[in-house]
Design goal:
45% of the residues lie in helices and 19% in strands. The strands form four sheets. Strands 12, 13, 14, 15, 16, 17, 18 and 19 form an eight-stranded mixed β-sheet that branches. The chain contains 19 helices and 19 strands. Strand 18 and strand 19 form a beta hairpin. The radius of gyration is 35 Å and the shape is elongated. The protein folds into five domains: 86 residues, GIY-YIG endonuclease (3-Layer(aba) Sandwich); 141 residues, no CATH class; 115 residues, Nucleotidyltransferase, domain 5; 134 residues, Nucleotidyltransferase, domain 5 (2-Layer Sandwich), CATH 3.30.420.340; 53 residues, DNA polymerase, domain 1, CATH 1.10.150.
Length: 607
C-alpha cells in the first residue's frame, strides 16, 4: 500500500520552506487532495512520517498518494486564495466539497402590475425577480407565509387585473388575512408600494421595517390620510407580534453566522445558523464522511462554504478553535469588502448562539447515526475531559471478580458509540496468577487480550479507542506496564468508586478527574462500570457453581477431575445430567458401564 513512501518522503524533504499550494495525485494522475501551507516542506513532510498515527481520513489519503506537485506563492494569503480556486476547479475527493445551488430555495416575486410573493426551487423565470438562494426550504416558506400575513397579500391563484370583481372576496379577506385585491379597489401603484414594504421586511428584518412604517404612518397622519395611517398601524402591530413570537431571537440586532461541529462514527455533522438583524433567517446542516481533526475541519469548511458566493457577515462565531482564523479574516475581507471577525465566544450572547448551533449539529448527527444526542454529547465530553485526540467510538472496560483462588475470573465489555456492544464481550479465567492479586490478574487479562490482537485472532483484531479499568491508579499503572511492553498505544484510565460503590472519578495513574458535575458523562461512565461489574460477577458465580458441581461428581469412584469436566461440558445444568441415561453418561465421560451406573444412581439421589 505504501510502496512509494520512501520516494514521497525524499521528495517532500527537498521542498522549499516557502508558502504555497500542494496537489496530491493518485496513480492515474487525478488530483485527490489540495492543501495550502505556510511552509511547503514542513507541511507536506508530515503526511509521510508516522503514517500509522494519522487519523482514518489522512491514512486513507496517504495510502492513495502516488505523487504530488506544488506551486510556490508569495504569501500565505495568496496560497489560501489559490487553494480555494483550485479546489473549486478540480473537486478533489479528499477535500471538503459542498453542494452548489442545486436544491436551494428562492423567494420569487412574480412580474406584472400585481406581483405575488411565493416559494420556488428554481430561478429560471425571466419575468420574475428572486431573493436567495436559501438552503432551508422550510425557513423560506415560513418567511413568505409570515410576510403575506403581515402585509395582507393575496395567496390565491387569481391573476390581476384579469380577475377583478369576477367572484366574491374569499374567507382570507373577511378574516383580514388579505387586502382584497380581487375587488378592484386597490391601484397598481398602491399595491406595488405594499410589495416594496414587504420585501424590505424580508431583506432587512423587523426593526428596519417598523422604523420605516412608523415614519410612513406619521406622515400619513399629518396629511390627514387616516385610513392609510390605520393600515400602517396594523402592519406595525403585526410585525411586532410576529417578532415577539419568534422562538429564537438574539438580545440585540446582531447579524452573524454561527458554525458548530459534532463528530461520531467517523462522520461529521456541521450546523450553520444565520442571524440577520437579530432574527434567525436560515439554518443548514452538512454531513462530511471520514475522520477529520476538529481544528482543520472548521477552517477548511469555512473556506469552501464562503467560496461558493454566499453572503459573508461581519461576525462569524465558531464553537471551537480552528486553524488560520486571522488568514481567513483577511481573505474574506478581500471578497466582501468589509471587516470580518471570526471568534470562539467564551461567554455572553455569542456563547448562547454557538451552544444552540452545537445542539443542532448533535441532533442531526444523532438522527443520522441512530444515537441520541445525549449519547453523542457524553462521548464528546469524555474526549475533552480526558484530552483524547478523537471521540472514543470503541471503549473496552475490564473488571476482576473472585471467590477464593478457585474461581478467579475477569470480564471484558465493549461499548460502541455509547452503547453496549455484546458481540465484543469476553470472559477470562485467571490461569497464571497464584493467590489473590488484583493487579497481577488485571495484567494477565490485558496481556492475553492484546496478544490475541497482535496474533490477528478473530474477535480481538480491533484496537479500542479507550480502555477503562474498574480500579484506581494502582490498576492503571500496573496495566500500563503491560501495554508499554507489548507496544500497544491506547488511552488508559481507571474508574474509581466511592464507599457506596458508586462511580465518583476517573484515575489517570496519578491524580483523579472528577465527573460528578457532568450529568451525561457521569451516567455513561456509571453505566459502563456497573455493566462490567455485572458481567464479571455473573461469570464468577457461574464458575463457582461449576466448581462445586465438579467437586460433587468426583465423589463417585472412577470419576476424576477430567471426567467431571467432560460431563460439565456436555451437561451444563443439573436438570440436564439428571435426564441423561447410563449409556449417554458412558459416552460423555468415556467410562465403563459399572461406573456409569454408580454415577447415574448418585446423580438421582444427590441432584
Amino acid at each position: 500500500m505504501f510502496e512509494r513512501l520512501d520516494y514521497l518522503r525524499n521528495k517532500a524533504n527537498h521542498l522549499p520552506t516557502l508558502p504555497g499550494v500542494y496537489q496530491m495525485k493518485d496513480k492515474t494522475g487525478t488530483i485527490i487532495y489540495i492543501g495550502k501551507a505556510k511552509s511547503l516542506k514542513n507541511r507536506v513532510t508530515t503526511y509521510f512520517h508516522a503514517v500509522e498515527a494519522h487519523n482514518a481520513k489522512t491514512y486513507k489519503l496517504v495510502s492513495n498518494i502516488h505523487d504530488f506537485e506544488f506551486i510556490v506563492t508569495e504569501t500565505e494569503l495568496d496560497a489560501l486564495v489559490l487553494e480555494a480556486s483550485l479546489i473549486k476547479l478540480h473537486s478533489p475527493k479528499y477535500n471538503i466539497l459542498l453542494k452548489d445551488d442545486k436544491g436551494f430555495s428562492y423567494i420569487r416575486i412574480t412580474g406584472g402590475d400585481y406581483p405575488k410573493i411565493m416559494h420556488s426551487f428554481k430561478n429560471d423565470d425571466p419575468g420574475s425577480t428572486y431573493i436567495g438562494p436559501y438552503t432551508s426550504g422550510y425557513t423560506v416558506k415560513q418567511t413568505i407565509e409570515e410576510c403575506n400575513r403581515i402585509f395582507m397579500l393575496p395567496t390565491c391563484k387569481k391573476v390581476f387585473p384579469r380577475d377583478f370583481r369576477k367572484e366574491r372576496p374569499c374567507l382570507n379577506h373577511h378574516i383580514k388575512r388579505c387586502m382584497g385585491v380581487c375587488q378592484g379597489k386597490i391601484s397598481a401603484e398602491e399595491y406595488q408600494k405594499t410589495i416594496r414594504e414587504a420585501l424590505d421586511f424580508i431583506k432587512n428584518g423587523s426593526k428596519e421595517s417598523v422604523e420605516y412604517l412608523t415614519r410612513e404612518m406619521e406622515a400619513a397622519a399629518e396629511e390627514l390620510d387616516f385610513e392609510r395611517a390605520a393600515v400602517l398601524r396594523d402592519r406595525i402591530s403585526a410585525i411586532t407580534r410576529s417578532a415577539k413570537a419568534q422562538s429564537i431571537l438574539t438580545e440585540r440586532d446582531i447579524s452573524c453566522d454561527v458554525f458548530a461541529v459534532s463528530q461520531n462514527m467517523k462522520l461529521t455533522s456541521i450546523a450553520v445558523v444565520k442571524y440577520r438583524s437579530g432574527k434567525l433567517i436560515d439554518k443548514e446542516n452538512f454531513f462530511i464522511g471520514d475522520e477529520y481533526d476538529e481544528h482543520s475541519i472548521r477552517s477548511e469548511f469555512l473556506l469552501q462554504y464562503y467560496s461558493n458566493g454566499r453572503e459573508i457577515p461581519k461576525i462569524i462565531y465558531l464553537d471551537g478553535d480552528s486553524e488560520d482564523n486571522s488568514l481567513l479574516e483577511e481573505y474574506f475581507r478581500g471578497i466582501c469588502g468589509h471587516k470580518v471577525s471570526i471568534t470562539v465566544p467564551k461567554r455572553g450572547e455569542g456563547l448562547v448562539l454557538t451552544t444552540l448551533a452545537k445542539s443542532n449539529a448533535d441532533e442531526y448527527l444523532s438522527i443520522r447515526v441512530g444515537r441520541t444526542s445525549r449519547e453523542i454529547t457524553a462521548l464528546q465530553d469524555l474526549q475533552k475531559l480526558l484530552g483524547l485526540s478523537k471521540t472514543p467510538v470503541l471503549i473496552e472496560s475490564y473488571d476482576i471478580s473472585n471467590m477464593g483462588e478457585q474461581t478467579r475470573v475477569a470480564g471484558m465489555i465493549t461499548y460502541r458509540n455509547g452503547r453496549p456492544y455484546k458481540s465484543g464481550y469476553r470472559k477470562f479465567s485467571i490461569k497464571e496468577v497464584s493467590g489473590i492479586d488484583d493487579y497481577a490478574c488485571m495484567q494477565e487479562v490485558i496481556r492475553r487480550r492484546f496478544r490475541h490482537y497482535l496474533d490477528g485472532d478473530e474477535g480481538f483484531d480491533e484496537l479500542p479507542d479507550l480502555i477503562l479499568l474498574d480500579g484506581g491508579k494502582g490498576h492503571v499503572n500496573a496495566v500500563k506496564e503491560v501495554l508499554d511492553c507489548l507496544g500497544i498505544n491506547v488511552s488508559l484510565f481507571g474508574l474509581v468508586k466511592d464507599d457506596k460503590h458508586r462511580t465518583r472519578a476517573i484515575s489517570d495513574g496519578g491524580g483523579e478527574i472528577q465527573i460528578n458535575s457532568n450529568r451525561n458523562l457521569f451516567k455513561l461512565l456509571t453505566e459502563i462500570q456497573d455493566e462490567v461489574h455485572r458481567f464479571s460477577i455473573n461469570y464468577q458465580r457461574k464458575k463457582h457453581k461449576q466448581s462445586q458441581y465438579e467437586l460433587e461428581l468426583t465423589k463417585v469412584k472412577g470419576i476424576g477431575e477430567k471426567k467431571a469436566l467432560a460431563l460439565l461440558k456436555k451437561y451444563k445444568t443439573k436438570q440436564a445430567i439428571r435426564e441423561a441415561t447410563v449409556e449417554e453418561l458412558m459416552e460423555a465421560a468415556k467410562i465403563n458401564r459399572e461406573t456409569a451406573e454408580n454415577l447415574h444412581l448418585y446423580i438421582q439421589e444427590i441432584f
